[in-house]
């Protein structure tokens, strides 16, 4: 869907959001992140983009083999929507990470968007989300993750609003590039900002390895089984992984 196709949603009207004023956008971003420690900048940007645009929430996830790693969210519902897509391995944000191009889902309740991701669309609608706009983070050559924007009414973003969303995604990309990937040698108590994310992700890989050994299947099949178990029990994929590695849940060949 091109930006011009997405410029006719209900957000286009007499009301002007801060996202329609480039100077105000820059000021709000600077105010929001100016005093933030580097590892808090992505979360601050999720909060500010919700102020700038007609959105109900925002989240950011890092691209990873198999399951995206949720980086931050503006609230509980946005975080839940990110987890649903990670669990299903499907949805606008997953597609944006795979293609490196924006994916703008105007209406998850009907039409082509609902048909494209039927299970995710149903769960998103049940959570009160009607539209999702997923923007890749990174460069034209490498996508490192996505900035995912959620709205509780169907429709698109205007051209100006989409430019604002792209600006926030660009700032978040720069913020991610500036974050340390290992502890500072001058600060022994400092830890990598990735440590917390990696812990949960390592549990998923550990669970996949256990399922491979138990069922004699490959990694892709093991991940599919883990996702299927999570979906069937209304768990996130990380919660299902924890159940596997703590032996609270054991998958059988018939699952």
**How much of the sequence is in beta strands?**
5-15%
Could you give the order of strands across the largest sheet?
Answer: 2-1-5-4-3
Q: State the separation between the terminal residues, measured CA to CA.
A: 38 Å
The first-level CATH class of the largest domain is given as Alpha Beta
Write down the overall geometry. Answer: globular
Q: Which fold name fills CATH's third level, the topology of the largest domain?
A: Beta-Lactamase
Radius of gyration from the alpha-carbon trace, in angstroms: 19 Å
Outline of the structure:
The chain is of the alpha+beta class. The chain is built from ten helices and five strands; from the N terminus they run ααββααβααββαααα. The protein has two domains: 18-178, 2-Layer Sandwich (Beta-Lactamase); 195-245, Arc Repressor Mutant, subunit A (Orthogonal Bundle), CATH 1.10.10.
Characterise the protein shown here:
The protein is of the alpha+beta class and 255 residues long. The chain folds into two domains: 18-178, Beta-Lactamase (2-Layer Sandwich); 195-245, Arc Repressor Mutant, subunit A. It has ten helices and five strands, in the order ααββααβααββαααα. The chain has helices at residues 22-33, 41-52, 76-88, 92-99, 111-116, 118-126, 159-178, 195-215, 219-232, 237-245; strands spanning 57-62, 69-73, 103-105, 131-138, 143-151. The longest helix is centred in the last third of the chain and has 21 residues, at 195-215. The radius of gyration is 19 Å and the shape is globular. It starts with 21 loop residues before the first helix and ends in a 10-residue tail after the last helix. 41% of the residues are buried.
């Amino acid at each position: 869907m091109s930006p011009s196709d997405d410029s006719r949603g209900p957000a286009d009207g007499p009301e002007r959001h801060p996202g329609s004023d480039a100077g105000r956008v820059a000021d709000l971003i600077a105010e929001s992140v100016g005093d933030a420690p580097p590892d808090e900048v992505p979360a601050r940007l999720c909060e500010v983009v919700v102020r700038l645009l007609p959105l109900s929430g925002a989240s950011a996830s890092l691209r990873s083999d198999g399951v995206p790693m949720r980086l931050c969210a503006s609230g509980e519902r946005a975080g839940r929507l990110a987890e649903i897509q990670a669990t299903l391995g499907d949805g606008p944000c997953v597609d944006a990470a795979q293609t490196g191009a924006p994916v703008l889902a105007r209406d998850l309740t009907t039409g082509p968007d609902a048909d494209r991701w039927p299970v995710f669309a149903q769960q998103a609608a049940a959570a009160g989300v009607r539209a999702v706009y997923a923007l890749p983070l990174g460069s034209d050559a490498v996508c490192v993750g996505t900035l995912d924007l959620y709205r509780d009414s169907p429709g698109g973003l205007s051209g100006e609003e989409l430019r604002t969303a792209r600006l926030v995604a660009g700032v978040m990309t720069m913020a991610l590039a500036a974050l340390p990937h290992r502890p500072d040698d001058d600060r022994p108590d400092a830890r990598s900002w990735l440590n917390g994310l990696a812990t949960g992700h390592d549990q998923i890989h550990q669970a996949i390895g256990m399922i491979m050994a138990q069922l004699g299947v490959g990694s892709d099949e093991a991940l599919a089984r883990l996702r299927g178990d999570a979906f069937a029990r209304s768990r996130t994929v990380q919660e299902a992984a924890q159940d596997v590695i703590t032996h609270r849940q054991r998958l059988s060949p018939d699952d």
